Amino acid sequence: MYKIKLIQENPKVGDVEGNFKLAKSYIEKAKSEKVSLIIFSEMFLTGYPPEDLLLREDFLNETEKQVALLAELAINISIVIGSPLRENNNLFNAAFFLSEGKISNTYKKQILPNYKEFDEKRYFKSGSSNEIFIDKGIRFGISICEDIWNGSLTKEICQGEIDFLINISASPYTVDKKMLREEMLCDYFKKYKKPIIYTNQVGGQDDLVFDGSSLIVNSKDSVHRLDSFKVDSFNLELEDNNLSNISSNPISSSESIKDIYDALVLGTKDYVSKNNFKGILIGSSGGIDSALTAAIATDALGSEKVHTVMMPFKYTADISIEDAKELSENLGVTHEVVPISEMFNAFKNSLDKIIVKKESDKTEENLQSRCRGVTLMALSNNLGYLVLTTGNKSESAVGYSTLYGDTAGGFSVIRDVYKNTVYELARYRNSLGIVIPQRIIDREPSAELSEDQKDSDSLPPYDVLDPIIKLYVEKDKTKKDIIALGFNSEDVNRVIDLIDFNEYKRRQVPLGIKISSRNFGKDRRYPITNFWKNHI
Question: Which CATH architecture has domain 2-246?
Answer without folding.
Answer: 4-Layer Sandwich (3.60)
